[in-house]
Each structure stands twice: as structure tokens, then as C-alpha cells.
Amino acid sequence: MSADPTQRAVEVRRSARRRRTVSAYREGERTVVLIPARMSEAEEKRWVGVMLDKLAAQESKRTLGDTELTERAERLSEQYFGSRARPRSVRWVTNQNTRWGSCTPAEGSIRLSHRLQGMPEYVVDYVLLHELAHLLVPGHGARFWQLLEAYPKTERARGYLEGVVAAERLPAAPAAPAAPAVPAAREE
Question: Over the stretch 80-117, which tens digit does the pLDDT of each residue have?
Fold first, then answer.
């Protein structure tokens, strides 16, 4: 069992009839990944990771309302901070385009950018934990980062967010050249 209680067990099912496709679904507390029988262990490992990320992204697209976001923050505080971080309000906002979240410790309020909606759950959880940690430690000093070490997906989530920021800075892809017109077939 993993140190992260929110992580589900993964069952890989191989099928001789399955040739190229890989799929995954949730079955109770378990994630089932269906793969072709001929797939190597390395390919299996890679595809399990891809499918877990896809499922997480699909699940997080089911937008949480402010009430669910508050409940999630409370669960995360309990799990990682012994319920010491107690926000008075947690909500989505649309006016944060250069930050992922913000916290006002004096008010106990946490705001998350709407840009996080649709990102994997572990990323939203990381940003929530980051802001919850500010209720306990205001700055970004050693004590602050020590609190976040408890969350096992901190580095992964930070990498994801850094990738999003880097992708936003990329120039737009050039438009594909128009395909030459193909004359219509003639009946003779």
C-alpha cells in the first residue's frame, strides 16, 4: 500500500484479443487498465502512467463547486497538516491570470485560479495544500516547504504547472499550408 491513501490500487488486465488499444476505468477503489497481451513490461508501465493521468484529468474536469473545493481543502488539511490549517473560505476566482492561487491568512481565505479547472486532481490538491500551508506559515521559507514535503506529488505537480507556464510562452504554431485543390473526378 502506498503512503498516499488517496491513491487507488491499479489492476492491469492483458488481453490476447486486444491488438493496439489501451483503456482504463475506475472499479470501486481500484483502477483497471486494459492492455494488449503482447505489450512489454516497459510499455505497460508507461501506458499505466498515461492512463492514470488521463483518468485524473477527466475526473478533475468535472468542475468542483466552491462547497466541494472547501470540503477538499478540509480533507487535505486533515490528511497532511493534522487539521491545523482551517480556511474560512475557499473559492474559485477568474481574476488570477498570473498566479495559481492566493491566500490571505488574516482572513483565512483561499482563492484558486479558474485556470486550474480541468487540470489533474493532484495538481489542484497541490495548489490547495500550498495555500493551506500559508495559513500556517506566511512566507516561502524552509518551514513552509517542509510542510509541503508531506504531499508525495509536490514535485510532479510543480513540474506540471511549470510545463503549463512554458507552453503558454511558446509562439503559436504556424498555420498549416492550404492543401492544393484536387480536381473533381469526372465520369466518362
Answer: 999 999 999 999 998 888 899 999 999 999 999 988 98
Indicate the pTM of the whole model: 0.61
Rounded Cα–Cα distance for residues 8 and 29 (Å): 6
CA proximity to 58, closest of 46, 47, 50, 67: 50
How long is the chain?
Answer: 188
> Are 87 and 70 spatial neighbours (Cβ–Cβ below 8 Å)?
yes
The CA angle 128-62-51, to the nearest 5 degrees, is: 90
Reading the block at residue 14, the C-alpha cell is 492483458
In 10 A of CB 160, how many CB atoms? 17
DSSP 8-state secondary structure symbol assigned to residue 99: -
